[in-house]
Amino acid sequence: MILYGLNPHQMIPTAQALRQKGKAARAVISFVNQGTFSPVNRDANMMIDEQNRTRLPELIDLRRERMAVSPFTFYRGTALIMAHDLAQQAITGAPLVICGDAHINNFGLYASPERRLVFDLNDFDEAAPGPWEWDLKRLVTSIILCGEDLGMTDAHVKEAATKATFHYRYGLRKLLETSSMHRFYSSIGEDDILDSVSKKNRNAYKKVIKKAKNRNSQQVISKMTQNDAYGRRVFTENPPVLTHLDTDLAGAVEAAFEAYKQTVRPDIALLLSQHLLTDVARRVVGVGSVGTRCYLLVLTCENASHLVLQIKEASQSVVSRYNPIVGSPLGKLNPEQNNGLRVITCQQILQAYSDPFLGHFQANGRDFYVRQFRDMKGSFEMNELTSQGFLDYVEGCGLMLARAHAQSPNANYVAGYMGKSTAFEKAIVKWCYGYSRQIYRDYDNFVR
Predict the structure, then answer these.
(1) Less Cβ around it within 10 Å: N or C end of the chain?
(2) Tell me, what DSSP letter sits at residue 275?
(3) Is 340's pLDDT higher than 70?
(4) For residue 323, what pLDDT band results from cuts at 50, 70 and 90?
(5) Which comes out higher in pLDDT, residue 287 or 43?
(6) CA–CA distance, 257 with 311 (Å, rounded to integer)
(7) Domain map of the chain by residue range?
């Protein structure tokens, strides 16, 4: 049950031992416990206001406006509240590197370094070591809220929630039956997507794939920039979404960009050395991140080609804030020592392929990370999918969450805990339905 290394003092538990330990955990945290949502006494509006205090004040009203659109958009902006609530629920105690905000809109298409279009998790602002259940419950609750928002029948919503949970359980077990290298390199590509969806929905998926392939730096340059008096490509103002910075802040961003270049791979650093930074602007991002500091950079090469990078502020992970588990699958890395480093490290662990331009820096007491902007990034509009198309989509989300979790040492423990019966799916779906009703109550209070 123990695997010994070259040095007999170095040892790790076998996969079988971990699965047995996970199975034994059911006696402590049963599926009944896992499926019981215990309401938590807290003020959601006060927690949102607390979070807003660290954000740019001129964007707070925009954040509130976006969150107020529907219970689902409200949910997308409340990862902090859910982490707080999850910490009060049943937890098996097996830490993995988790996404922390694995709702269905945080999966999508993007380009691998080999320019292959892949489907995977694509948001890691909250990623950190934490309880695996948190990611799964975040995903399944989002499926329920999104399905209801789209007007789907109760039966169809429940089927989607159950299907995602099943494919997480099934996918994790199947991946763990393969070699460590197979699960490390496993991915879902463009061809896999089209092969797995029903013929009726294939055209809708092809449309999203085609659109994603055209979303790159060149498209950003053509749509979001113009030539200035010196012939440089500069961003076109579009307040409040895209605005230029004052001279002092723009200079600070330029200095920080030099610090970022010290953290990238040598081949990327050499490529960046062939570019000049020609413009900087502030960009307002999605629901959950509205009000955080985010900037876009235009880089111009000697042959007049362009690269657009994005700088995003990295705050403390909501997982780390409420995670009661001691011990990290990240080894010696302190995930809160540098939040920019935490985000890109977790991204590289959880994604099948990661952006080679990932890097980080610290400035003015804040942490930031850098990535390419819109590098063939594409998302599926849920209201454009048929009922079967929605089921196909959530199946992919469940599988890719399993693939992400399979990279951590405790994955076999999780597989052992979940077992082979459908009792686990029923428990998770039951909990998520209970929690989704809490979200409706929070949303009503928020709108009022």
Answers:
(1) C
(2) E
(3) yes
(4) confident
(5) 43
(6) 9
(7) 14-191+378-447
